[in-house]
Amino acid sequence: MRSTPRELLLKMFEAAVEAAQPEHCVPPHLPLHLLQATPNPGRVLVIGAGKASAAMARALERHWPGPLSGLVVTRYGYAVPCERIEIVEAAHPVPDAAGLAAAERMMALVRGLGPEDTVICLVSGGGSSLLPLPLDGITLEDKQLVNRALLASGATIGEMNCVRRQLSGIKGGRLAAACHPARVVTLLISDVPGDDPCDIASGPTVGDPSTCADALAIVKRYGIALPAHVRAVLESGAGESVKPDDPRLAGCETRMIATPQMALEAAAAVAREAGIAPHILGDAIEGEARDVGKVMAGIARQVARHGQPFAPPCVLLSGGETTVTVRGSGRGGRNVEFLLALGLALDGRPGIHALAGDTDGVDGQEEVAGALLAPDTLARAWARGIRPADALQDNDGHGFFGALGDAVVTGPTLTNVNDFRAVLVLDED
């Protein structure tokens, strides 16, 4: 291995992000056959939401041979220039008025389309908060309150999106239903464990089998306090989303164009080229970030001590979306929390290095992708008077790794295929 452990880990992360870049994954999936199959094609309208949606729109524009127009909403700082598709920015992960205005405009754009028209919907992670159009009787402030409570509750992304769908005027298939009778082709970049289209941006263009009763059960499970009028929407069933068998969705097509697995395979190729055996442990790992960190430390120790289940040198790759139940005063961040728990469990074990980061460049609510861990990380922290266990207890992984100069800062990556974790186990340091 000619690269240092740090360099190799960063190369693997960069390859994972690059594999999901819209410029690579959008063109092969464009529905160009619709132009050829229809003698008199109607309008082509492009809509979308998510952290990668602006870059997706740019890639579509560059490779689409005919006229089109549209509106896409992305996170602040993630816009890229487009000529025919309007790009607007809004807040993530807690929605704001700009997102609400964009969602209202999007619903207005798709109304009145005919069967000869085509809607191309560009959806990626982050779209839930970027399209915060509430049902009647619910306000943006209500949505913000519920979103903050969900983010701090420890609920999985699937559970959070179930609640969001039942309180939305645009998610859970409602956007596709509004497009009827036009054809709808959705291009998805997945950021969720299992790649379920319902959970990517809360499924604005796909039927939703979950119910208001399911959402209420999640609210109860995590002790989330809802305003009385919001709870009433769920209890009355008024928030029921559009179901998969709804006839308005008959003309909808969904294409998964980038996934966490693809990103992990790209990272594995980099490791293999460096002479390190890659092992993908899973692309849909969930659970409390600190618990996943402890488990991964146990596996890495077994590899280092006994050569089981893999012989070193090797790298253990995984993806998915862990959760952080915020109890301290720190800034959260599931990747840095995972990494801090991993480091504490390894306790400076020689020869084990790691990187954990979010492929969108934002871990939690911080403009930091994640961090790097080395065998001397804990020792360097103690030398500075920083107590790693206290930082974990306070949910302050960002403060911990930032103080050591080990944060991974990418800026907006313009894509999002969830979390990336790499634990590098060497024969010796």
From TrEMBL:
MF-aspect GO terms: kinase activity
Keywords tagged on the record: Kinase, Transferase
Domain MOFRL-associated: 9-235
Domain of life, per lineage: Bacteria
Gene3D superfamilies linked: Glycerate kinase, MOFRL-like N-terminal domain (3.40.50.10180), MOFRL domain (3.40.1480.10)
InterPro entries: GK-like_C_sf, GK_N_sf, MOFRL, MOFRL_assoc_dom, MOFRL_protein
Sequence ranges assigned to domain MOFRL in this UniProt record: 314-419
One of the Pfam families matching this protein, by short name: DUF4147
PANTHER family the record matches: GLYCERATE KINASE
Protein name: Glycerate kinase
Organism: Massilia haematophila
